[in-house]
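Residues pack. One example:


***
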Amino acid sequence: MKKIMKNSSKVSWVKILPLAGVVMSLTACGSMRHYQAEMQGSLQATKQGNLDEAVANLEKNNTGSDKDLLYFLEKGQLLRLKGDLAESVNTWLKADEKVRQWEDESKLTVGKALEAAGSVVVNDKVRRYDGQDYEKVMLSTLLTMNHMLSGNVSGARTEIKKTYERESLIASLHEKEYDKVEEEAKSHNVETTFKNLRGYPVETLDDPEVLSLKNGYQSAFSHYLAGFVFESLHEPSLASAGYRKAIELRPNQPLLEQGLKGLQGRLARKVKDTDVLLVVESGFMPARSSKTIPLPFIWKNKPVITQIAFPVIQPSHDFRPSNIQIGNKSVELSPISNLDAMARRALRDEMPGIIVRSSIRAAAKGAMQQEMGEKMGALGSLAGIIATAATEQADERIWTTLPSSISIARINLKPGVHQATISTPQGPRTVQLSVSGQYAIIPLRLLDQSVIVPTPRTTEQLAAADAVKSAN
């Protein structure tokens, strides 16, 4: 294995003593949040369709008054699946406030990939969670869909505009952060390729589906949805821009190409049937886990190895249906956005910054162990090793209730109620689809044993559903 950190000449005893105190204090307090374990109860309940239980588990693990971004992302999704779109929107708008805070700070600060002293000293889990870039974009996309389902066209238009602006800012930040990471890597003599990390599952990030993505934050679904929304508003120039971008992000998809080619013809048609966009959301985001890897560095002209944790995302391999039966017609589903692959592409792009922070941290923690051993003997060395092991965990935070993949279909249906059958991991399930208007968006969320159609429900419907559950 090549050396990741070639020297540690910048690590001094003056820095190590405060470092030891920080490491020890963070080891003793609750800074080490185990998010994946924390969300297991909510995730299992969601997969089984027990959404009230999922919300209750989420609340149980977030009792403080200062709720973080992940709380609002997860809760907004659970409320959406319950059919409470109004509260889902309100909750997601609180998440959006936190994302906008990140945006405002990012416009003023270059190199956020290397910020937060605690992430260099302890681990990345102590950093404030600002969301993965694809999560920020999906937040606006799901808000767009909620607004359209609720008849709030103005709100949908605002979110689409926000999506475009957010993507532009992220692209600009990536370019600046790349330069900053390269500068820091040279300054600390760090090699930033993850392929040099012995034992790291390189194949998860070199997956052809990951490499085929333009980046880890732009979703073809987001742009196709924008095209569909603007088409429904009879704004062909904006609609064609959305369809064109979707094709660019997901080429060789006939359904996407037909969206652009058939635009003028659809706008000129006399209204008879409803143009329905079916959005099928499958699976759940794969968990981030820690992989501990030895990082070598030089301390007082001697080679030293420190164990440092890196994040790993294994492919989810979730079930994805290939078609949906509506009445007596089988409709093919076109896979449009693989959020699983996007998460791994985002991690791939993030790895240089993670490696720089980890290499600096490895040298600092390793030097702390060596100095404590020299100054305090075997007990000091042991204390340093224990503190390092206790605090060395990769950042596993991720929006867990997002689907791992999104597929779409487009079909003309007569207004009214239609019966649809779709496969799930536990066999076919049938749901009722209510269709009206010239254009309609119908999302379907596949769970382990059921299918949810997240459409608006009145206050009376929500109260009645709660009453039935209480009676049972």
